[in-house]
């Protein structure tokens, strides 16, 4: 399983939490367009790697390590969305879609520059909170797992 798949799974679980949608395998299947057997296989790997665990209701929970990874990916994605929309003038829908890829490739240095250039924003154009900004301002490279 690629690191990109790993990052996608923990990021989706964090987004489901934000939306107050129970994080279960079926929701991940919907959002990744993957089959349930494939999702279950990937979930087992993430459990083995200590990034998630199942609670007593079979809901997926992020471990502290999984949460740190998810926050970094989502912060990068949302800063990129703002950059694409506000700085480059992409239509919001397009910026929203394209930012998903940026969540996997931005560096902390680039994030710092985007954050400063955009006058330290707190939310995306669609009003979603940019998580983990305290870690970014602190300047330390967040753990990537
Ligand atoms: Zn958006």
From TrEMBL:
A Pfam short name: Fe_dep_repress
InterPro entries on file: DtxR_MntR_Metal-Reg (IPR050536), Fe_dep_repressor (IPR001367), Fe_dep_repressor_sf (IPR036421), HTH_DTXR (IPR022687), Iron_dep_repressor (IPR022689), WH-like_DNA-bd_sf (IPR036388), WH_DNA-bd_sf (IPR036390)
Domain (HTH dtxR-type) ranges: 3-56
Keywords annotated in UniProt: DNA-binding, Transcription, Transcription regulation
Domain Iron dependent repressor metal binding and dimerisation: 63-131
Classification via SUPFAM superfamilies: Iron-dependent repressor protein, dimerization domain (SSF47979), Winged helix' DNA-binding domain (SSF46785)
Family statement drawn from the similarity comment of this UniProt entry: Belongs to the DtxR/MntR family.
Protein name, as recorded: Metal-dependent transcriptional regulator
Biological source species: Actinoplanes sichuanensis
Classification of source organism: Bacteria, Bacillati, Actinomycetota, Actinomycetes, Micromonosporales
């Amino acid at each position: 399983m690629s690191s990109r798949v790993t990052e996608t799974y923990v990021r989706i679980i964090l987004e489901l939490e934000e939306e107050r949608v129970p994080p279960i395998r079926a929701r991940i299947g919907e959002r990744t367009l993957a089959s349930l057997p494939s999702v279950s296989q990937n979930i087992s790997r993430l459990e083995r790697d200590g990034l998630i665990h199942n609670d007593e209701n079979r809901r997926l929970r992020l471990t502290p390590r999984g949460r740190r990874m998810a926050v970094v990916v989502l912060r990068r994605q949302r800063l990129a969305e703002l950059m694409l929309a506000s700085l480059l003038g992409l239509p919001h829908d397009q910026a929203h879609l394209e930012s998903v890829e940026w969540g996997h490739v931005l560096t902390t240095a680039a994030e710092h520059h985007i954050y400063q250039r955009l006058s330290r924003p707190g939310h995306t154009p669609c009003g979603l909170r940019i998580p983990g900004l305290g870690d970014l301002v602190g300047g330390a490279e967040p753990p990537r797992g």
